[in-house]
Amino acid sequence: MDKYLILDGNYLLHRVLHAAFSKELSTDGGDITGGCFGALRIVRNAVMQFKPTKCLYVWDKGISKRRRILYPDYKHKRVVDEKEHNEYMRIFYSQVRLLEELLGYINVHSISVGGKEGDDVCYQLSRILDGESIVVSDDRDYILMLKEGTDIFRPMANEYVTLANCKKVTGYTPGEYLFRKVIEGDSSDNIKGVRGAGKKTIDGILEQVTGIDTGSANREVLSCILDKLKELELDRRGKLILENLHIVERNLWMVDCSFEEWSTGELIGLGAQVQEKLEYNEKMFIKRITELQFKSMLKGYSLWSLPFKRLK
Questions:
Q1: Are 162 and 114 in the same domain?
Q2: Is the dihedral of CA 296, 300, 301, 303 positive or negative?
Q3: Which of 18, 46, 202, 290 has its CA 20 to 30 A from that of 214?
Q4: Whole-angstrom Cα distance, residue 89 to residue 244?
């Protein structure tokens, strides 16, 4: 049975670029290379640790039209310093182009679907691939994707999350996390939650909700929790949730990737990208990392490259 390593590409690259070391790495000509170097290191460590059959690096290629129609303010964030933001995005996309090129030389598939966000693509892959999937991202929202055969690895937190240990590792089951998510919203995506009902209120409610299988994150589980909620003696903050069920319902549609619509053509194209035959191009990879002055990779290249040569 195949084992797939699915990496949340944009998120990982953003995290690396915000690390202090990435700002210090550049060529003698002044080209910044820290994001690419750091992302390659994460990919290699994950491939070496989990020994997958295939490695899929997933990219964002747009913002969900469905979410924008439902919530026009989705991902509309105020930029404090436009000049600084534009410079950061210039660097980011330069690293994207560079990383896509290098990954192709070492048997790592760059996966994307026009108009689709990376988390929607990761979710779809975890549902259609025949085999075991490990999704690599430090974004805790990937807890919502957990199921038998799909685990989550958070590299910077060094956490391996499964359906069995999710509660112990994160403090929530997938269904409980969904309940928290739809009430709190998501500030990073500019999704407003139920004002006045925070983590303390949510955790207090979950302690009282019993007799529900919250091992999966879906609409049915959320409905069961909300039904139980109506039977509880709630304080003022708890009652705010019931008074704002329209926000809860909207946020469910925002965060649940199963609601994203896929055409037959998009699914066929996604499958074709996974099945594409790659050729390990050692000559080009060495040439490019020499130009980029990735000296530590070059020094121990035979050992460094070994995990990638085993990939399909």
A1: yes
A2: negative
A3: 46
A4: 37
Q: Are residues 289 and 141 in the same domain?
A: yes
Report whether 45 contacts 95 (CB < 8 A).
Answer: no
Q: Is the pTM of this model over 0.85?
A: yes
Residues 126 and 109 in one domain: yes
Distance CA 289, CA 142 (A): 32
Question: If residue 151 lies in a helix (H) or strand (E), which one and from where to where?
Answer: strand 150-154
Q: Are residues 188 and 77 in the same domain?
A: no
Q: What is the DSSP letter of 147?
A: B
CA distance 138 to 207: 26
**27: closest CA among 283, 290, 286, 297?**
290
Chain position carrying tokens 């979950």:
206
Q: How many CB atoms lie within 10 A of CB 52?
A: 22
The answer to whether 256 and 217 are in contact (CB under 8 A) is yes
Number of structural domains (the chain) is 2
Average confidence score pLDDT of the chain: 94
User: Region 265-277: what's the mean pLDDT?
Assistant: 96
What CATH number did the domain enclosing 187 receive?
Answer: 1.10.150.20
- Specify burial of residue 41 (Cβ count, 10 A radius: 0-12, 13-18, 19+): middle
Q: Is the dihedral of CA 14, 19, 22, 23 positive or negative?
A: positive
Question: Is 305's pLDDT higher than 80?
Answer: yes
- For residue 81, what pLDDT is reported? 83
Asked whether residue 299 falls in the same domain as residue 192, the answer is: no
Give me the mean pLDDT over the 52-73 stretch.
96
Convert the pLDDT of each residue in 63-104 to its tens digit: 999 999 999 999 987 777 889 989 999 999 999 999 999 999
Question: Given this model, what pLDDT does residue 80 score?
Answer: 76
Nearest Cα to 103, choosing from 13, 26, 3? Answer: 13
Residues 153-162: tens digit of each pLDDT: 999 899 999 9
Range of the domain at 22: 2-167+263-303
- Find the mean pLDDT for residues 147-168: 95
